[in-house]
């Protein structure tokens, strides 16, 4: 597997955090010396993780969570929008996660353990656990125990999703157990692209990820989930990489690959699924997610063109065509952070857990906090956003504690879906498969019976009727060399934790 490395991570030892921000380059492949300390390897592993999670996996999630749709005037992501992926699709993302991010993070752990640098060890182990979680939930099985031992185990065994989750939780518990040892050391500072050296936040990240994974089997893990809620030591800040600048090879990875490097920057448009829901509820975050249209009808007698106009999933192949100016392009900025877990996501996780535990009062408190944080994320002088009116009694997003467990969960997951736009789209894809929310419509979004916010089936879907994607295919780059790679199953095949 080829390695894609980051120039900035190699310079951390001799630069400050702000200097790294200027030097970050997630797309270059320099010769790289692996015989170095955790101080070099940790930032390399973190930033490399951001390049894949914030690039390919964010792209897949944004289309499959129906926040974006493929434009009819371009073709880059048609096979993703119509679910026509093969086992050669997105192989580079898989390869680079293993040979780049996870390899560096494992080396960082080994170097840190040998040197007693437990702060680097904790950060590298938690980041590794997160990367494994992303791969595990996209593919359904991963070589988590042997995948990085390719020199001694060239054909690693794959471990199915549920068992792999157990290993990930063990990693998180191990990191949590070393908090006191790390606390006695000098902070990492600029080498930590996520929390700037805060071990407390790395531990909270570990506990928050543990809660997320435990929620995939709620009844079995009810006691452990309640214990985490009672401990109340979960993330209240975002776990994110926010070091990008507007320069070639140094910007947000999705911006870099979609806007800067393609021959057109017109592929990703507003999906009617999310857009219709935002407009139905007069949600001002629409201006943070989508550009306005600029089309002006030539005939003054024609109706004024809508300020926001989206496309159905798979609409690109229909006879009716739209000019670029007629549809709303997805907003992706070069300086957008890459989010791993956000404070809003954790608030929604707590809300869902409390709803399932029958604690509707706490569920409402956490839900309101999640919506508030989701609005605040995009608040600016140019776009002032405040959730107060939306979550107040009678507001569009007021939490209904009388809706029953499923009704409360639907409200929570719907808001979590909106909050993941332009940040954690892959998580909304996981949640829809896990909970069934938002529900999947039996009609298209231009049908009078369509309920805004319901998912639709891509109009050009290659899957059997009523089926939607649930996974990525086990990659050809693995199966070509490793007979232990599981047999490829259709992308609509459910995993054990899917609704």
Uncertain runs are 1-33
Largest sheet, in brief, is: 2 strands, antiparallel
Taking the alpha carbons of the first and last residues, their distance comes to 35 Å
Average pLDDT metric: 92
| Percent strand | under 5%
Q: Radius of gyration, rounded?
A: 22 Å
Strand order of the largest sheet: 1-5
In helices, the fraction of residues equals 40-55%
Question: What is the SS-derived class?
Answer: mainly alpha
Number of helices: 19
Beta-strand segment tally: 6
CATH architecture of the domain at 1-255 and 465-499: Alpha Horseshoe
Q: Indicate the CATH topology of the domain at 1-255 and 465-499.
A: Serine Threonine Protein Phosphatase 5, Tetratricopeptide repeat
The coarse silhouette is: globular
CATH class of the domain at 1-255 and 465-499: Mainly Alpha
Topology as a string of helices (H) and strands (E): HHHEHHHEEHHHHEHEHHEHHHHHH
């Amino acid at each position: 597997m080829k390695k894609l490395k980051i120039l900035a991570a190699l310079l951390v030892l001799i630069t400050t955090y702000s200097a790294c921000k200027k030097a970050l380059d997630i797309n270059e492949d320099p010769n790289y010396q692996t015989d170095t300390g955790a101080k070099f390897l940790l930032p390399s592993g973190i930033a490399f993780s951001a390049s894949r999670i914030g690039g390919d996996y964010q792209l897949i999630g944004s289309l499959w969570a129906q926040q974006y749709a493929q434009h009819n005037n371009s073709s880059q992501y048609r096979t993703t929008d119509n679910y026509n992926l093969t086992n050669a699709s997105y192989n580079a993302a898989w390869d680079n996660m293993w040979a780049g991010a996870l390899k560096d993070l494992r080396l960082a752990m080994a170097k840190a353990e040998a040197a007693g640098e437990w702060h680097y060890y904790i950060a590298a182990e938690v980041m590794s656990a997160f990367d494994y979680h992303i791969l595990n939930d996209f593919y359904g099985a991963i070589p988590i125990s042997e995948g990085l031992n390719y020199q001694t185990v060239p054909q690693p065994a794959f471990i199915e999703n549920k068992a792999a989750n157990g290993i990930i939780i063990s990693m998180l518990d191990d990191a949590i157990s070393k908090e006191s040892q790390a606390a006695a050391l000098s902070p990492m500072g600029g080498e930590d692209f996520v929390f700037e050296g805060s071990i407390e936040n790395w531990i909270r990240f570990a506990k928050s990820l543990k809660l997320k994974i435990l929620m995939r089997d709620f009844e079995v893990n009810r006691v452990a989930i309640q214990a985490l809620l009672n401990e109340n030591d979960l993330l209240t800040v975002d776990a994110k990489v926010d070091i990008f600048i507007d320069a070639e090879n140094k910007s947000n990875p999705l911006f870099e690959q979609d806007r800067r490097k393609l021959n057109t920057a017109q592929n990703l448009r507003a999906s009617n699924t999310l857009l219709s829901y935002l407009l139905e509820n007069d949600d001002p975050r629409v201006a943070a997610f989508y550009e306005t249209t600029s089309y002006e009808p030539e005939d003054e007698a024609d109706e004024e063109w809508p300020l926001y106009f989206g496309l159905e999933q798979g609409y690109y192949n229909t006879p009716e065509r739209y000019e670029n100016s007629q549809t709303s392009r997805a907003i992706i900025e070069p300086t957008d952070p890459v989010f791993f877990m956000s404070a809003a996501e954790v608030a929604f996780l707590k809300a869902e857990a409390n709803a399932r535990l029958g604690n509707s009062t706490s569920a409402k408190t956490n839900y309101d906090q999640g919506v508030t944080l989701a609005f605040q994320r995009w608040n600016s002088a140019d776009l002032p956003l405040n959730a107060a009116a939306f979550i107040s009694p009678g507001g569009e997003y007021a939490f209904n504690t009388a809706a029953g467990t499923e009704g409360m969960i639907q409200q929570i997951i719907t808001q979590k879906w909106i909050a993941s736009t332009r940040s954690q789209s892959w998580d909304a894809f996981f949640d829809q498969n896990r909970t069934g929310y938002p529900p999947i419509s039996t009609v298209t979004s231009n049908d009078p019976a369509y309920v805004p916010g319901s998912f639709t089936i891509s109009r050009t879907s290659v899957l059997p009727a009523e089926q939607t994607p649930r996974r990525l295919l086990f990659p050809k780059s693995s199966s070509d060399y490793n007979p232990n790679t599981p047999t490829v199953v259709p992308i609509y095949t459910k995993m054990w934790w899917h609704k």
